[in-house]
Amino acid sequence: SLQLYTVDPKTTYAAAKMIADESLADHIDMNFGCPVPKVTKRGGGAALPYKRRLFGQIIAAAVAATEGTDIPVTVKFRVGIDDAHHTHLDAGRIAAEEGATAVALHARTASQRYSGTADWDQIAALMAHVTNVPVLGNGDVFEADDALAMMAATGCDGVVVGRGCLGRPWLFAELSAAFTGRPRPTPPTLGEVADIVRRHGELLSAHFGEDKGMRDIRKHVAWYLHGFPAGADLRRALALGKTRRELDELLDQVDRDAPFPPAA
Predict the structure, then answer these.
(1) Which residue from 131, 140, 145, 188 puts its CA 20 to 30 A from 68's CA?
(2) What's the pTM value of the predicted model, to 2 decimals?
(3) From 25, 34, 165, 177, active-site residue
């Protein structure tokens, strides 16, 4: 799938048309969830749904560009700009009316950014308001039980995972098991996590080149090692690594048998 960020209907149409014509994606997700002030103060990101007409025009443009294909267009947004300016109910209705096949709500306002607790009651409210397309919930899903709890509390049709998978890509296997009633997979040991980090670094290097790939892996390493007994010196060295060989040598120093920390 491909996330499409845009604030202009003409640009949206051109981008979505290119994606469709060149078979670049199986799914287009329009993300109106960015809360970063430099984006929202220009009317973009999580602030854009406040402009109801423009919001609808942008979604309609993406849907029109994919007409005749099997590429679904979905839309994600937040509760609103702040507690005085909620837009999610209108956003859900407009998105559905303009042809979105599903909508997803991050149950925080833009002013909250990622702080506090997601207000799952707002997902339930959107479920009651939008009944003709699936409604997905997002916010504070960090383990499989969180997803089950969200669905039970809100009645939402599915769950979208954001920050919860940072440094935890195996979360999706746990979610799959939880939703199908299968036994949960055993969380990885530190050695198994190190192997995943190596593979992640390999893929980043193949895509971006080793220099940029190794700079990018640094932030992921911090997420991967969160809660594990890795030691300050090793963490610091991994945050400065420049080559895949250096990454491999540093990862060889971890205690491979250290179990996954439940508190993490």
Answers:
(1) 131
(2) 0.90
(3) 34
